[in-house]
Design goal:
The protein has a 5-stranded antiparallel sheet with strand order 1-2-3-4-5, covered by helices on one side. The longest helix has 25 residues. It folds into 4 domains: 106 residues, no CATH class; 88 residues; 111 residues, no CATH class; 122 residues, Aminopeptidase. The protein is of the alpha+beta class and 588 residues long. The protein is globular, with a radius of gyration of 27 Å. Helix 3 runs antiparallel to helix 4, helix 15 runs parallel beside helix 16 and helix 18 runs antiparallel to helix 19.
């Protein structure tokens, strides 16, 4: 006669590693995880018998994986979190407690991961999305390592194939059956076009760029615009920066395949500093932004050298434009963080007028005036520019951090956008931390208008499953969501919304974002989107749903005359002057 299984509450809660297994003891459950081949069993108070369960991410997984990988490779291993000179005693105490926990548990958890082959561990590292799916792919599918080495994008999709092919049972059996087939047939099975050109294109994608969202976006783009395959076939490799440019039509039209190849080469060679792929991409975006502000139409950028020349030319064109009489009479908001008295080793000056910012741009040979003039004027002091004189010459962008409710040095650049020393960054951080100032309200709440009802949107708002948008119909709700999304409470923008020239929507499905719709001439609408705290652009498929919503409402001339732009610039040149920080709501 079988004995009925019972659940006995553990004496102590926590986790331990024994015989290569990770044991986790909670008040109402016990979980046992095996790393290779991966499996997890659990028993709970409500269900007091052992059963299989999905593996979830354990505490300190990233640090333990890194420790395990580096130790096997014979590379230096560091466990402790760094303590900085400017850290307060209380912060130092917290870091010391954290380091004590790391010293105790990271080597133990690393022993758990040591059972996984090194190649699989390296692919799992820095993968918050489905790291254990990758491990299972290696463990349960012979030939997985070959896919991950030669065609990482296809291997990654096979390890996470329910994302790309729905409603299939016996998961790993299905993957094992499809793996021996030609790669174009595998791609067709995963929802891609059955084409050798697509198979060759996907084989060029670097593993670092393989994420579910990016691959779904690329699949949707190729389905919608198959003509894009031919120009992309010239690329030698595709990394996350290249994909970001591909996904934005306004960027894609200005980037030649030669330029993209040079960016990818910088990325593959891990070039650091000013000449890195990331900084070159940032220079690319700044250049296009300045050219749009100047209403300059130029052809695609052909190379990194050509990019630098175009950027320098855009800066010169911007700085040659004299400040209007209106700008000369304007003053920026009061500096949010007062400048301390100058000392022998630190001196910083707030640029409190357009004239001072303009002269700073000329002296430093940068684009700070053309990019940030309107932002500083309309941000209510939550974005500000300072001129650093000591310990070295630099232009400092100070921005309000909505998560930590304080100010921080968001960007610090020397003459001609050169990098500054870490000591300079440390002194700037110490100065801002010592002030301890918080963001100031715009004063809208002080006016007796927060109960105002906003004009109704004239079109039907979608609310079906998979796509849900709600119109923010009261000023109180609008202000609350603007603060939550990190958008400045700009009175001029509020006045446009009260007049019915702008409408604000909250999209919660398929992504959380704030949508701004602008009524233009002739009844046409332009729109833009902002994710939480100014995050990256929406997914391609989400953009398509918004397009469909507006198209079905018989609004044919949307965004740039109905040309179907993928980017969310929505007339930055004109609108950004009116609504301040919303000029940052552009693609990326």
């Amino acid at each position: 006669m079988k004995t009925k299984s019972k659940f006995t509450p553990p004496d102590k809660q926590g986790f331990t590693v024994k015989d290569g297994k990770l044991y986790e003891f909670n008040k109402d459950s016990v979980e046992v995880t095996r790393a290779w081949p991966p499996a997890r069993y659990c028993k709970t108070k409500k269900k007091p018998f052992w059963r299989c369960a999905p593996i979830h991410e354990s505490s300190l997984r990233q640090q333990a994986l890194e420790y395990s990988i580096r130790r096997e490779q014979g590379r230096p291993v560091s466990i402790d979190a760094k303590i900085n000179i400017e850290d307060t005693p209380s912060k130092r105490e917290k870091i010391e407690k954290l380091n004590a926990k790391r010293r105790k548990w990271i080597p133990a958890i690393a022993a758990f991961y040591d059972l996984i082959p090194l190649e699989a561990r390296e692919k799992m590292f820095c993968r918050d999305d489905h790291a254990w799916n990758i491990c299972s792919f290696y463990a349960r599918c012979p030939g997985a390592s070959e896919f991950m080495r030669n065609a990482p994008a296809i291997g990654y999709m096979l390890s996470n194939f329910p994302v790309f092919r729905k409603k299939l049972s016996k998961r790993w059996e299905a993957v094992r059956r499809i793996m021996p087939k030609p790669r174009r047939k595998i791609l067709a099975w995963l929802g891609w076009p059955d084409s050798e050109a697509v198979a060759k294109l996907l084989s060029k994608i670097e593993y670092d760029a393989c994420f579910n969202k990016e691959l779904l976006m690329l699949r949707a783009l190729i389905r919608k615009e198959p003509e894009i395959i031919k120009p992309l076939s010239h690329l030698k490799s595709i990394d996350y920066i290249t994909l970001d440019i591909i996904f934005k039509r306004s960027y894609r039209s200005k980037a030649s395949w030669r330029f993209l190849n040079e960016l990818s080469e910088l990325y593959r060679n891990a070039v650091k500093g000013e000449g890195s792929a990331y900084n070159s991409y940032k220079l690319f975006k700044d250049t296009l932004f300045m050219e749009r502000l100047l209403m300059v139409q130029r052809g695609p950028i052909q190379s990194i050298t050509h990019l630098r020349k175009r950027h320098d030319r855009a800066v010169e064109d911007a700085n040659r434009h004299e400040i209007s009489e209106m700008d000369k009479s304007k003053q920026y908001p009061v500096p949010p963080v007062p400048a301390p008295p100058a000392t022998e080793d630190f001196e910083i000056i707030p640029l409190d007028s357009p004239v001072k910012l303009y002269l700073e741009a000329r002296e430093q040979h940068n684009c700070v005036f053309s990019v940030y003039n309107e932002s500083v004027q309309n941000s209510n002091g939550n974005i500000y520019i300072y001129s650093l004189r000591k310990p070295e010459r630099a232009t400092v962008l100070v921005r309000f951090d909505y998560e930590n409710n304080t100010f921080w040095p968001a960007e610090v650049k020397g003459p001609m956008n050169t990098e500054v020393s870490t000591e300079t960054i440390s002194k700037l951080s110490s100065w801002l931390n010592a002030c301890g100032l918080k963001s100031k309200s715009s004063g809208i709440d002080d006016v007796d208008m927060t109960d105002r009802i906003l004009p109704a949107f004239p079109l039907t708002v979608p609310g079906e499953d998979g796509f849900h948008i709600s119109h923010l119909s009261t000023l109180a709700n609008l202000l609350a969501e603007m603060r939550r999304f990190g958008v400045e409470e700009n009175k001029e923008l509020i006045s446009f919304i009260l007049k019915g020239q702008f409408y604000i929507f909250l999209m919660d499905v398929p992504e959380l974002a704030m949508l701004l719709v602008n009524r233009g001439k002739g009844g046409a609408f332009s729109y833009s989107a902002r994710r939480m705290y100014g995050g990256s652009a929406l997914r391609y498929e989400t953009e398509a749903r918004i397009d469909q919503w507006l198209d079905e409402a018989v609004l044919h001339n949307l965004r740039r005359g109905g040309q179907g732009q993928m980017s969310f610039d929505f007339m930055e040149i004109k609108i950004s002057v009116q609504i301040g920080q919303f000029h940052e709501i552009k693609a990326g």
